[in-house]
Specification:
- The protein is of the alpha+beta class.
- It has one domain (about 5-10, about 20-230): 3-Layer(aba) Sandwich (Glutaredoxin), CATH 3.40.30.10.
- About 50% of the residues lie in helices and about 10% in strands.
- It contains 11 helices and 4 strands; from the N terminus they run H-E-H-E-H-H-H-H-H-H-E-E-H-H-H.
- It has a 4-stranded mixed beta sheet with strand order 2-1-3-4.
- Helix 4 crosses helix 7 (about 130-140) and helix 4 (about 75-85) packs across helix 8 (about 140-155).
- The two termini are about 25 Å apart.
- The model is unreliable at about 1-10 (pLDDT under 50).
Length: about 240
Amino acid sequence: MSVAETSSQLVPPPDTPWSIRFHFDVMCPWAYQTSKWVREVRDRGLVEVEWRFFSLEEINREEGKKHPWERAWSYGWGMLRVAAMLRRQAGGNDLVDRYYATAGSWLHEQGRKPHSPDAARAVLGEVGADPALVDAALADPTTTDDVRADHDAVRALGAFGVPTLVFPSGQAFYGPVVVPAPTGDDAVALWDLVRGWDRFPHLYEMKKPKSPLDMVHIAEAFAPYLEGRDWQSVERPAP
C-alpha cells in the first residue's frame, strides 16, 4: 500500500471534524498566533484539538549546554511541565488549552512574563486551576517524561519547530505561519487550504518570502513578545 493510499484512507468523511494534534511551546509567537486560529476553526466545529508539547529549548540547544530537563526550571520546559500536570487532571485537555491561551496572552499580547514558577501559579489562578499544581509538577519527575514523550514522538515524524499539526493520516505539518490569526470565514478558508495539503504526501514546502514591509508588520505584531521575553532566541535552520 502506498503512502498516498494510506493517507487517503485515513481522511475523515465529509462533515466530520478532523481530530488533530497541535504541538506547541508557549514561548513561540508564531505558534501562539496559529493556536488562536485553530481555536477559531475548532469553535466552528471543523476540528477537535489535542494539545501536545514541543521544546524549542531542546531542539535549539547548543552542544555542551544543559538539556532543559537538567535545570530546576527552564522557561519553556517549566511551563510545559505545568501543562503536563494539568493534562492529568479531570478535563485535562481543556485545562491545557486554557493555560496555554492565558500564558500565551500574557507573553504575546500583553508583554508580561509567564515563564517563572510564581507567574505560572498566577496563570493557574486565572484559569481556575489550583496554583499548587505548579509545585506538584516540579516535584514530579514524570512530568518531564511526559514532555519528552510528546517532543520525541513528533520529532520522529520529522518535526523541527512549532506550530506543528499532526493530521489523522499521521502526517505532520509545520504551520500555518500567519500573523495576525485570521478569524471568521477567513479562518475557515485557511483551514480548507491547510487540510488540502494532506492529499499530497510528497508536497513538502511552499513558502512566501518576507518583504521589508512584511518584516515591519511582524515586528509590530511581536512587540509584546519582545518586551516580555527574557531569553535570546536561537533557531536552527529548518531541514
